[in-house]
Amino acid sequence: MTASGSGLTIAVASGKGGTGKTTISTNLALVLAQQGKSVQLLDCDVEEPNCHIFLKPQIHSSKPVNVFFPRVIEDKCTGCGVCGEVCEYSAIVVVKEKVLVFPELCHGCGGCTLFCPEEALEEIERPVGIIEKGSVSGIQFIQGLLDIGELMSPAVISSVKKAVDSSDIIIIDSPPGTSCPVIESVKDADFILLVTEPTPFGLNDLKLAVGMVRELGKPFAVAINRSGIGDDEVKRYCHDEDIDVILEIPDDIRIAQAYSRGEMIVDVLQEYKGLFKQCLESILNQKAQGLDELQERQ
Amino acid sequence: MNCRRDSDRIMKEIVIISGKGGTGKTSIVASLATLAGKNVLADCDVDAADLHLVLEPKVQSRNDFSGGKKARIIKEECTACGECIDVCRFEAIHYPQTAGRTDSETPRVNPTFCEGCGVCVRVCPAEAIAFEDAVNGQWFISDTRYGPMVHARLGIAQGNSGKLVSLIRDEARKIAERDDLDYIIVDGSPGIGCPVISSITGSDLVVVVTEPTLSGQHDLERVAELTGHFQIPTVICINKWDLNPEITSQIEQRAKAMGILSAGRIRYDPAVTKAQIMKSSVVEYTGGAISEDISSVWRNIIYALG
């Protein structure tokens, strides 16, 4: 998943939740598949994955996502306490020469195991979620699901990305926000589409997301959903910052209703298909002109 | 993790979350703050905080937040042996990617990917890696027209939001105790992961704001499982319920089967966006029917708190 070669990875992200990432990801993927492209859609919103609601894929396989955590080999442990000193996350502590492990706090850095002078720790795996692979309408589909009560969504996201096969285009539906899970989702993408809505909350969170993608040094553009509901501040900001707006979906009650029922816009409201096609053309044109140049400008 | 506090105290902590993003949490929190009277507000959606846009807090104190340490290679000491690169599980250390580079160049730590585990620091034979507290953001105690507010700004592309959420809740609790306030109203983040778990553990009531869509229904089920897992009393509130009355009923029935009662329905009203633009809460902005909906939700929340 790099800019080299013919493939293209597009991540759809947003600072604010509920702006339409899933709507845009699924509709872009379907339009690409209908154009005969080989396309994979990755649902990296592993806390609340929703692409499957709209695409209804056949799931062919599923496998657990495991993370490492340490286990004490009791007859080797001397209770020296080195592991507890090494751990920055308080996931392993030594109380009265007894080692206690808190797996849900463990980041899997391997430090305790590496530095134990008695080799009294071993790393074992525990599941924190699953990934599922399937297909629908010519789209190869992969999604991750974080187990309830688990913290390590980036581990599940990383597994989703590792499950990809070669294809022309990969579309990543990211979680909302700007912190670890989002960065894990978008960090290998060639291009990021930031979705927002024209409201004060939408603008505030767009600015945070723009800060994030600039920090990562990724070329990007903006999509405005529910265009018309609020004010013109998002457009003014994009204009002032020289950011391209490559998709504008109007505020249309029929879109909201189709969404509520889990229907695809390009299936039930075909007049909007052209918008998604144009958005893809903009991204592909950018790629032809060189994404590096775009990133330089931004 | 699930540490409940004294049951005889009067102060109650109410956390508004949603599973799915964009269901209207922050707009509802701003209105509840208007209705609640004596309270302290905590914006725990530290990834994308928006409550300040409505409540216009006047910052009284400003503090740095450090979520942990970050490794930094000291060029003068580094022998470029590459051991740090080999041990880093987070792929955060690389040789500079310049054309014609040689492996004798100093590797670099990408602070965005560094998880602050310190393994490289301990492994480095030249002791060439510094390990310092990173400033990941700032947190604030402010005054608003509805009482004190604790909020934060996480730095760009910074992690460890769970720790920041815990800090904000702790500070809000201290203020509530000091000023003898009745309610802590917490604006949570979407999802079911680290910041959400930090927002809800040990609180008195979780209010899940959802919307009548299949996505909203799916996400509610996962978030309800989460609050069940931590045994926190939970109610739901369906926002924009009239967009799809049929799914609204389905969600309420499904929630009831999971032991979760409804705190009420809030109708769709373009006034929500207008209020946001005017920097007002919805109940400040309009005396319309939607404000009665929200008032009713607030009364049901008080009732659910017992």
Mind telling me which CATH architecture of the largest domain in chain A this is? 3-Layer(aba) Sandwich
Q: Count the strands of chain A?
A: 11
Outline of chain A? elongated
- Output the radius of gyration of chain A: 22 Å
The largest contact between protein chains, plus residue counts on each side, is: A-B, 56 and 64 residues
CATH superfamily of the largest domain in chain A: P-loop containing nucleotide triphosphate hydrolases
Output mean pLDDT of chain B.
Answer: 92
Low-confidence stretches of chain A: 1-5
CATH class assignment of the largest domain in chain A: Alpha Beta
- Give the termini distance of chain B in whole angstroms: 24 Å
The computed structural class of chain A is alpha/beta
Strand order in space, largest sheet of chain A: 3-6-7-2-8-1-9-10-11
Percent strand of chain A equals 25-35%
Order of helices and strands of chain B: EHEHEEHEEHEEEHEHEHEHEHHH
Count of strand segments of chain B: 13
Oligomer: heterodimer
Low-confidence stretches of chain B: 1-7
Q: Number of helix segments of chain B?
A: 11
Q: What is the spatial order of strands in the main beta sheet of chain B?
A: 3-8-9-2-10-1-11-12-13
CATH architecture group name of the largest domain in chain B: 3-Layer(aba) Sandwich
Estimated helix fraction of chain A? 25-40%
What this model shows, in words?
- The complex is a heterodimer of chains A (298) and B (306).
- Chain A is of the alpha/beta class.
- Chain A has helices at 21-34, 51-55, 82-86, 111-115, 153-162, 180-186, 200-216, 233-240, 253-260, 265-268, 273-289, 291-297; strands at residues 8-13, 39-43, 58-72, 92-95, 98-101, 121-136, 139-146, 169-173, 191-196, 220-227, 245-250.
- In chain A, a hairpin with a 2-residue loop joins strand 4 (92-95) and strand 5 (98-101).
- In chain A, helix 1 packs across helix 11 (273-289).
- The longest helix of chain A is centred in the C-terminal third of the chain and has 17 residues, at 200-216.
- Chain A is elongated, with a radius of gyration of 22 Å.
- Chain B is α/β, with parallel strands linked by helices and 306 residues long.
- Chain B folds into two domains: 12-65 and 139-305, P-loop containing nucleotide triphosphate hydrolases (Rossmann fold, 3-Layer(aba) Sandwich); 68-134, Alpha-Beta Plaits, CATH 3.30.70.20.
- Chain B is built from eleven helices and 13 strands.
- Chain B has helices at 25-36, 51-55, 83-87, 119-123, 161-179, 194-200, 214-229, 245-257, 271-277, 282-285, 289-305, and strands spanning 12-17, 39-43, 58-65, 68-73, 93-94, 108-109, 129-134, 137-144, 147-154, 183-187, 205-210, 234-239, 261-266.
- In chain B, the strands form three sheets. Chain B has a nine-stranded mixed beta sheet, with helices on both faces. Chain B has a two-stranded antiparallel sheet with strand order 4-7.
- In chain B, strand 8 and strand 9 (147-154) form a beta hairpin.
- Chain B starts with 11 loop residues before the first strand and ends with a helix.
- Chains A and B meet through helix 4, helix 6, helix 7 and helix 9 of A and helix 4, helix 6, helix 7 and helix 9 of B.
